[in-house]
Amino acid sequence: MSIVEMKVPVIGESITEVTLSQWLKADGAYVALDEPICEFESDKATLEFPAEAAGKLIHVAAEEEDLEIGALVAKIDTSVAAPEGGSGDAAPAKEETPTKKEEAPAPAVASDSYAKGHPSPAANKILAEKNIAAENVQGTGRDGRITKADADKATAPAPKAPAAAAPTPAPRADFSREESRKKMSRMRRTIASRLTKAKNETAMLTTFNEVDLTNVMALRKQVQEKFVEKYGVKLGFMSLFSKACAKALMEKPDVNAFIDDNELVYHDYADISIAISTPTGLVVPPVKNVESLNFAEIELEIKRLAGRARNGELTLDEMQGGTFAITNGGVFGSLLSTPILNAPQSAILGMHGIFNRPMAINGEVKIRPMMYLALSYDHRVVDGSTSVTFLVRVKELLENPNLLLLDV
């Protein structure tokens, strides 16, 4: 028997630990060389772990287990050959082959793999505690595997009362006192740690303003059809806001700076981090050199980063950097908020919902599409007058988008 040990590889310079988020191949399954066997969740991204040899996979680590770099994850028995017809979900060892008297069952089709109806280690523990059989739970994981989330949602069938027992009142279906616990994902733990650090270690302050988006909405309506026809992407609010912020950042370099020990680091470029909500948490990959990009290039880059983020495909390099951040709570209906800094950056702009409100315009009351803007900043780097002037400039550029187009 020849065994190859699979250990957690070096992923990034600052990453010392990962979480085994899920197995992609079952324990005992045959795996081919370079076939993904599991997924790791690091502080910044989710990564697939490929097999370093072909053979029978032997699980060592459990799902949702925290592993240090170099820790043993699995073993591969390279003496086991691939089953007939290619790789499969199970590859029995030679000594496990049935005798002629006990014929082996026909191999299962792909939809009835080993994983189907089989709980992960974490899910199995929860089902055991609830006294629920696995066959009574519908698996939603890969190949029908029962995940921890499936086990958390599963409820035990009500016990049948003896025929002679007196009837008891049925409990109300909408009245529950149950509790459940779920381990925080590594990304959620990292987000919590960074936000707490930003809150505790910076002199954070927020200033507010409001912007009339009448002209921005008119511009989008006027050019949208031609814009989509030429570039294959819509002209959204994010490119306009990003461009306005980039221009204001070039004029107010303090807002684009950050503290490094006892020095202030200034940037002659604007790498704007865009907050993107994903199933595993909030990520803020930067769009680089926004000050030099046109609106179509910004929209296409935001679309690319958002797609990769939601598919868990962002690389560590794509997550690095950023000199300023924008978060848009308006897509979820937010009216007003005080966003938290994305350290080490010194400022973040919070966008909010667009609501029609009565406004006094040249002595007349008119209904206008208004949005509240919030700029949170580190008062150690940015003075109050600078922050207010910056936000007023962003407001001016958005209320007069021709200034953006003419670069004045």
Describe the model:
With 408 residues, the chain is of the alpha+beta class. The protein has three domains: 3-111, Beta Barrel (OB fold (Dihydrolipoamide Acetyltransferase, E2P)); 115-157, Dihydrolipoamide Transferase (Irregular); 190-406, Chloramphenicol Acetyltransferase (2-Layer Sandwich). 26% of the residues lie in helices and 24% in strands. The protein contains nine helices and 19 strands. It has helices at residues 121-130, 148-153, 186-201, 214-231, 237-251, 295-310, 316-319, 384-399, 401-406, and strands at 3-7, 17-23, 30-31, 36-41, 46-50, 55-59, 66-68, 72-77, 204-212, 258-260, 263-265, 272-274, 276-278, 281-283, 286-287, 324-328, 347-351, 355-361, 364-378. The strands form five sheets. Strands 9, 12, 15, 16, 17, 18 and 19 form a seven-stranded mixed sheet that branches. A four-stranded antiparallel sheet has the order 1-8-6-3, with no helix packed on it. A hairpin with a 4-residue loop joins strand 4 and strand 5 (46-50). Helix 5 (237-251) crosses helix 6 and helix 5 packs across helix 8 (384-399). The longest helix is centred in the middle third of the chain and has 18 residues, at 214-231. It is globular.
Keywords summarizing the entry:
single chain, OB fold (Dihydrolipoamide Acetyltransferase, E2P), Chloramphenicol Acetyltransferase, 3 domains, seven-stranded mixed β-sheet, four-stranded antiparallel β-sheet, 26% helix
